[in-house]
Amino acid sequence: LLGHTGLIYCIAYSSDGIHIASAGADDTVRLWVVNTGELCHTLTGHLSTVYGVSYYPDGHRIASSSEDGTVRVWDPRTGGPLSTLSGHIVGVSSLEYSSTGDYIASGAWDGTVRLWKTGGDLLLGHTEPTLDVAFSPSGSHIVSGGKDRTVRVWSAEFGGEAELVLRGHSDNINGVAYSPSGDQIASCSSDRTIRLWD
């Protein structure tokens, strides 16, 4: 699929598998038809590199996060903007919708994680940039990882401080994911290891 004019940093499938969204250094989010490679829409509005993209569970909304400090929500059917979530004071490196669509979690370069439902609750703990966030399958918890070499687990309902801080990596944590059952977390790092956590 060709069309981006800069590095591509993120990609996500719609829940029905018909579309994918991609985004990157050209400050755009692009929507594609998987089977044909057709470009459906180019979403513009971010003022800088887009590092994260996530589909709402029913596929009727897309969220994106950018170095411009915003999270934007889009209508994938029209390509139009729906809302802009502001609250991060630096670039937003990652984001994800919860499995129920009730929340968006976003991680930023200042080490903060925000939980968006009504007010963008601020989850503090990372001491360096947060590089990835993910929801548990039930949507009850968020896991984050970052340059401070920690994996942190948060309550989506109560926010506040992290319930667990997992240490073991010796370099940046670039990605985190929950297992489908929700009883394990995987993290990958620039230290060239993948760790599995109970």
What report would you give on this structure?
Keywords: Repeat, WD repeat. InterPro entries: WD40/YVTN_repeat-like_dom_sf, WD40_G-protein_beta-like, WD40_PAC1, WD40_repeat_dom_sf, WD40_rpt. It holds the Pfam family WD40. WD repeats lie at residues 1-42, 43-84, 85-117, 123-155, 166-198. This is WD40 repeat-like protein. This protein is mainly β. It has a domain at 87-197: YVTN repeat-like/Quinoprotein amine dehydrogenase (Methylamine Dehydrogenase, Chain H, 7 Propeller), CATH 2.130.10.10. 0% of the residues lie in helices and 51% in strands. It has no helices and 19 strands. It has a four-stranded antiparallel β-sheet, with no helix packed on it. A four-stranded antiparallel β-sheet has the order 5-6-7-8, with no helix packed on it. It has a four-stranded antiparallel β-sheet with strand order 9-10-11-12, with no helix packed on it. Strand 10 and strand 11 (113-116) form a beta hairpin. The protein is globular and about 45 Å long. The chain starts with 7 loop residues before the first strand and ends with a strand. 40% of the residues are buried. The mean pLDDT is 93.
